[in-house]
Amino acid sequence: MWFRLSKMVTFALKGCLLEMTTTIAWISYQNGTPSALTFASDSRLTWKGSAQTWDYGRKIYWCKNSPDIFGFAGDVVSQSSVVSQVCEIFDHSASQLAQGTPEERHQAFVTYLQSATAAFPGAMSNGLHVLHGLRHGESEGCHFRIWRTIKEAETHSWSDQELEFRIDGKKNLRDDPGQFFSAGSGASKHRTCWERRIQEAGNTSRSVFRALWDVIENAEDPMTGGLPQIASLAPTGFPATAWNAGTEIALITSARILAEQRCSKRWRSSDVSWSISQR
């Protein structure tokens, strides 16, 4: 695994840095109560300054022993390396992190991200855009939180902001930016597709995900492609992948048909993980 990763990094450094899009995050509600925090993205990596693409990139990461989930757009070399390391650090220090507040857990991530990327060669540095979702508490008393961390490519300046979802769980405003958050060059295309989808399926989680599939299937954004990948964090337990482009599902010829089935009416917004993961 480390050998394959080193080959990919070497290849990226010899050419141009890889860029990646589109990533989205949203909360599902059941009877006005948050039931899941879900991250999804496409799988395309694009070499900056060229038309070369690779549709097997990973953009969604999650912890096995900590209720933290990450998604990103922008430079893949630094972000994929750093975020995967953070997941391992969080998992191996889960007992200490469990005692920390959401702010302390997020700050631990930001501190490591800034430290690691500061050592990255300046000429090879590109913009970073990371979404970090986590859960505070468990079961009915829990609530989900999400931060957006950005490093500007030209100025190398940082910004870090907690994003606010609608706490009442209502989904009746088409232009409400709190329904979901997105990152990458396909973000605006995704919102346009979402506005069309809510006419058919209502303002539900299904509409959010179907809009991502529309951007991919219809080639709405040239840097968005490949199969979608999705992971979800429930009110209890740790994040779990509902569908990852790196699994065997990406190898079968009927993948697109299965994708359409998994986006169908059997996917209820209140139970994302169950419906997406069924085979």
Please, could you describe this protein's structure?
- The protein has 279 residues and is of the alpha+beta class.
- Helix content is 34%, strand content 26%.
- It has 8 helices and 13 strands.
- The strands form 2 sheets. Strands 1, 4, 5, 6, 7, 8, 9 and 10 form an 8-stranded antiparallel sheet that branches. A 5-stranded antiparallel sheet has the order 11-2-3-12-13.
- A hairpin with a 6-residue loop joins strand 9 (143-151) and strand 10.
- The radius of gyration is 18 Å and the shape is globular.
- The two termini are 27 Å apart.
- The relative contact order is 0.18.
- Mean pLDDT is 75; it is low at 1-16, 171-175 and 243-279.
Q: Give me the Rg, rounded.
A: 18 Å
Number of beta-strand segments? 13
Query: What count of helical segments does DSSP give?
Result: 8
| Class derived from helix and strand content | alpha+beta
Mean pLDDT: 75
The shape is globular
The residue ranges in which pLDDT falls below 50 over 5 or more consecutive positions are 1-16, 171-175, 243-279
Strand fraction = 25-35%
**Proportion of residues in helical segments:** 25-40%
Which helices and strands, and how do they pair?
Layout lengths: L1 H13 L3 E3 L2 E8 L2 E9 L3 E3 L5 E2 L5 E3 L5 E8 H17 L1 H5 L3 H17 L9 E9 L6 E9 L6 E6 L16 E4 L3 H15 L3 H13 L11 E5 L6 E4 L11 H8 L9 H6 L2
Antiparallel strand pairs: 1-4, 1-7, 2-3, 2-11, 3-12, 4-5, 6-7, 7-8, 8-9, 9-10, 12-13
List key phrases describing it.
5-stranded antiparallel beta sheet; disordered C terminus; 8-stranded antiparallel beta sheet
